[in-house]
Task: structure prediction
Amino acid sequence: MTARFRAYVVCVLCLAGACAQADAKRAPHPEGAPSASAQAVTATAAPGELAVGQPAPDFSAQDQNGKPVSLAALRGKYVILYFYPKDETPGCTREASAFRDAYGALTQRNAVILGVSTDSDESHRAFATNHQLPFTLISDPNGALAAKYGVPITLRFAKRQSFVIAPDGKLKKIYRTVDVAVHATEVAADVQ
Result:
């Protein structure tokens, strides 16, 4: 796939609501009413689907610097596992920057942040450097990690979804819909 075509696909994803430009056009939610992102999965899941309260699927991967990362090694901490479509796109940059800004407060609450996309390690290193991201980015080029969490991959782009994993390794919250304008704040409320 050429770079020009990939840029076109990313723009199509933006129009489909995957980026902040589309998120910004959503009507604000009334005070006290849950945002689209807050409508996380809480109902009983269909067979084979992930559900709040069940063990999070284990995984092993490498971060953007080639260091090993595994869910098992993070036991005892909250893990914020967020999937996003593409480095350096408007919505993904906004979401990553919000997690960067919340990083200090989240780490004080015993949380780690793991961002996952199909981009390469090289792309992740540049993205982390460009936006001073202090957290781990994982390359999932074949979508194997996304598949474990039921995150769709369309045209090589992961759908924007997040998972909050409790220190006991169980899923505490599942966000199948994410509003990048408020998501870091929502996740911070989950990590308590």
The chain has six helices and nine strands.
